Amino acid sequence: MKNAKPSDASEIGYLEKWFVGKHKSMEEYHREYSRKAIITPKFLRMLWLKEEKLDEIREALKFQRLEKFVKLSGNVYPYLVKVFLTNMWYDEDTIYSLVKGVDICINDEFWLAIVGLRNAGIPIGRSNVVGLEEFNKVQFFKSCLRNPNTESRSHSVGGLPVTPRILAFIVIWLSTLKGFNHAILTKEDLMLMYCLLGIIQVNWVSVIKEDIIKIRRKIEYIIPYVVLVSHFIEYIKLNGVMCF
């Protein structure tokens, strides 16, 4: 991870370059983003799934077109990611930002080129369950347990056998990143697992985009997807100089 911090003496100079002199954005960066924590990047080795003969998971990821996304790695530019988030705005379909004076438009081309995802499928989220009216979180969670007759008031990952537990890992740690209790599955987590196991196409662009947008709506939210956003930045060749 390229994570060297600029010295106090040089910080103003770097900010001037990153924000091209936009002092209001620089102030917001200092106030809201400069000290915000970043979720440590993780990825999944597809070869390990093959070696362990976890074919159901491999087929689920292939169907969802998540193979490229879950193994995404590479350089990380945490400070430029924070610049991206500081300058970010969005509409229903697209995320926009400005880094080093270059306009960035995260459209369908970006998602397809970088992680192989198409903007299609069911957009699972807190405000949308259309297409999954038959889903029952209690019944589904019980069906995933080693003993379906077990009584459990909390949807804990601890009672899951191998396949559902790895799918929970994929959902919680890779696909819908969050900086809090990873041991308990939310309704949205269970819905995504339900789609993975049931071979129901999820609109992962919508799911991931909603997580990124939460940064603007919730100041306390920890920064997710630093590898992905760093790839966005690299995609338009903004990293031609040393990045901090």
End-to-end Cα distance: 10 Å
Spatial arrangement of strands, main beta sheet:
1-2-3
Number of strands: 3
Task: Tell me roughly what share of residues is in helical segments.
Answer: 40-55%
Average pLDDT metric: 84
State the domain count.
Answer: 2
Largest sheet, strands/sense/barrel: 3 strands, antiparallel
Order of helices and strands: HHHHHHEEEHHHHHH
Strand content: under 5%
Number of helices: 12
**What does the overall shape look like?**
elongated
Tell me what the structure shows.
The chain is mainly alpha-helical. It has two domains: 1-35 and 74-118 and 212-244, no CATH class; 51-71 and 121-202, no CATH class. It is built from twelve helices and three strands. The chain has helices at residues 8-18, 23-33, 46-51, 55-64, 67-70, 78-86, 108-115, 137-144, 162-175, 187-198, 204-217, 226-235; strands at residues 89-90, 95-99, 102-106. Strands 1-2-3 form a three-stranded antiparallel β-sheet. Helix 9 (162-175) packs across helix 10. The longest helix is centred in the last third of the chain and has 14 residues, at 162-175. It is elongated, with a radius of gyration of 19 Å.
